[in-house]
User: What shape does this take?
Amino acid sequence: MKNAPNMPRLAAVRALSLLMQEGRSLTDALETALAPLDDPRERAFARALAYGVVRDWYRLSALASALLERPLRDKDADVQAALLVGLHQILDMRVPDHAAVDETVRLAARLKKPWARGLLNGVLRNFLRRREELLKRVARDPDVATGHPRWLRERLLRDWPADHTAIMAANLERPPMTLRVDASRLTREEYRRHLAEAGIGARPAPHTTHGLILAEPVDVPALPGFDRGWVSVQDAAAQQAAALLDPQPGERILDACAAPGGKTLHLLERQPALGELVAL
Assistant: This one.
């Protein structure tokens, strides 16, 4: 069935609500919230909205607090999430202001909270009128200015005095989607050709032997051969673990921090003749 135009925004709001109300990870919340969406482009848009809000959480939350006359009730976390999604679209996505406002207001009916229509409309239009003033005001807050809470800023400054600013900036960047090709099944270049045939651009990940960085993130089921074990989603840094460990035949290895298991599988791919591999 063709999805309604607002479904990706609704999925992002539901994922953020699960994060706020139940403390679920965003990855887990998105798995639940994206289930009704069939179109990979809509799933990608919903995911971009949700991750974008979390990445800019301190600024968006500060703006929402400045715009609301009083905090929303805990049971209205979905309305709070809709407001954050609306602000994120206005500030950071190529969505016209009027469309961002209109589509956010329509979410109230989807959330079965018609009373929120006026609130979302008024708050977002107020932001459009006062954008520069409010952005300057919230930027005075160090949490907003750096995108990091005080405790983390202090820890980074203590441990990495020369690099803490660069580390915080890197933390706020949108990470690429990186794959690890199972070398026991095919080479990196062979898989890259499969990606090209599917219209997916990719380049080798530096400092890896089997990593590929996608030009744009895609829905995992859309990856050629994913269901056949050809490839896994794994950051380039995580791919270094197996190479550095360099497992040898007969060795016994304990992976004491295995969830979700990407490095464990990589160890087996690299050395199938291990004596024992225990993952916790």
